[in-house]
Design goal:
It comes from Gluconacetobacter diazotrophicus (strain ATCC 49037 / DSM 5601 / CCUG 37298 / CIP 103539 / LMG 7603 / PAl5). 17% of the residues lie in helices and 35% in strands. The protein has 280 residues and is α+β, with helices and mostly antiparallel strands. The protein has one domain: Naphthalene 1,2-dioxygenase Alpha Subunit, Chain A, domain 1 (Alpha-Beta Complex).
Length: 280
């Protein structure tokens, strides 16, 4: 791990769910031990370090950092709404750079081909023009005005929907989307992907949903999201290179990839190397 890769070292990372954090895990190639004391407080220690790591409990997850992180992990204001359900969807190991996993999460174009008859279907494959921006006041990348026809946008959706999306990249390995909720005409559902890079070309993904859905069984909501993510894992583990190229000449984008282009430019300006081909 390059000590100059501060955008990676100083970030918060989800390393498990609060209901059952793993006793051992790996972050950025460093072995971690997780212990809950008699008072219920959780302590995280890194191999080769005397002092415990910083710890936070947010959004159903246990968070830590190997560097000097901000005061708290990503803020998600919607989590304070009392009628939203927290759905932790299980952790999934992926044989690809965590940055590849985030970029895939941001990609509308793959919906009809990878998530057929769920998030998309032929012949409605066109990605309408949308707006991307780097919000420098908060140092985040956003995409707005995204729209896609989805046969089953959510477990609670009974018919196809013209689904509106807003994407938010809060840190290199943390991303969220806000999408049309079938149960509320005003407030969107919020789906977060917290990625734990375990090695440059491997990671563990922790999907978490904050839903307005009073009726769907919890197990069914988890299964619905896991089905989608496991479809993505097949594609991700077959991508080459497994690391994310930041050189704009390495992979040729299309108009539908404007969010991916903005994400890569942002990473490059932040001098992110971990999980990229720049680290080779």
């Amino acid at each position: 791990m390059d000590a100059d890769d501060r955008a990676v070292l100083d970030a918060w990372y989800a390393i498990g769910f609060l209901d059952a954090p793993p006793p051992r895990t790996t972050l950025l190639g460093t072995a971690l031990a997780i212990h809950r004391g008699a008072d219920g407080a959780i302590q995280v220690r890194a191999e080769g370090r005397d002092a415990p790591l910083p710890v936070a409990e947010r959004h159903g997850c246990l968070w830590t950092s190997l560097g000097t992180p901000p005061d708290a992990p990503v803020a998600i204001p919607e989590t304070g709404e009392p009628d939203r359900r927290l759905v932790c969807c299980g952790s999934v190991d992926v044989g690809a750079s965590g940055l590849r996993v985030v970029e895939n999460f941001l990609d509308l174009a793959h919906f009809p081909f990878v998530h057929t008859n769920i998030l998309g279907a032929e012949p409605q494959t066109e990605v309408a023009r949308y707006h991307t921006e780097w919000r420098r006041d908060v140092d985040e990348v956003w995409a707005t005005d995204c729209a896609f026809h989805q046969p089953r946008a959510a477990l609670s959706a009974l018919t196809g929907l013209e689904t509106r999306y807003i994407y938010r990249v809060a840190s290199p390995f943390v991303t969220l989307l806000y999408k049309t909720c079938p149960n509320d005409p005003v407030r969107p559902d919020v789906i977060a992907l917290f990625v734990q890079p375990t090695a440059p070309d491997r990671c563990r993904a922790h999907p978490v949903m904050f839903l307005i859905d009073e009726t769907s069984p919890q197990a069914d909501l988890i299964q619905f999201q896991q089905r989608i993510f496991l479809q993505d894992r097949i594609i991700l583990e077959n991508q080459r290179p497994r690391l994310l190229p930041l050189d704009p000449r390495a992979e040729i984008p299309t108009r539908a990839d404007s969010l991916s282009v903005a994400y890569r430019r942002w990473l490059k300006e932040k001098r992110v190397r971990y999980g990229t081909t720049d680290s080779l």
